[in-house]
Amino acid sequence: MTDKKRNAPAGRKTRHSSGVTHVNEPHHDNFTVVGNHLAQHPELSLVAIGLALHIQSLPEGTPIGIKALAEKFPEGEIRIAAALRELEEHGYLARPRERLQSGQVTTRTISYNKPRLAVRAAAPVPEPASAARPKTPASPRGAADLLAGLRAHDSRLLLTERDVHRLAPLVTQWLERGVPPTAVVRSLTTDLPQDPIKHPAAFLAHRLSAQLPPPLPAPPPSVAAPRPAPLQTCDGCERAFRALQPGRCRDCRPTPVAA
Question: Is the pTM of this model over 0.70?
């Protein structure tokens, strides 16, 4: 009686002829959990992804200014500043300005291991000017998330849920006029007054109404190029020439003296 074949050892994986092969060992200490939404982000550069991973691995309170990061890495201040802007635009970083009790204004850096909803509410992709399809109205939910996230840029812009729903239609007007959400946030959070903002909802309502950009102008009507005159056969030499009516070409026409 023949022996039965033994099963393959548990845990053994089939090797692939190409591509990456992972050799993973569990970490029990000194490690950072990073989501694939960041590690495999389709729009962030590799510099931004690596910088976000480094920032998320740092202890609380570690300075991560541009100069401090440039002293650690060879990319330089320009590339690091660009990577920080990428992370800020995609919701992985926020740098709100806050006023201290002494009256001094400082910048606080907040790292998010998941992107914020207010920044992830992307504007619809603009269509070509010649597109005849109607515009898709902006989502009120995206406008509400944008307003709720303003407090991450400045704590004085904290809104109640009632104020968010009341101001959402004003933000929707901006979005429907082709303004990206990042530009709306920038218009509402830059050049803020130095004094305390007692009524943030009224302040934002004034900015949304007073600074509302005009609608995008309609594309100019396309002017068709003039069509050339049709080809005619000369009655004298039978050569082809262009003219509106049949007749003779320029060489075969009688001159005024001969006429």
Answer: no
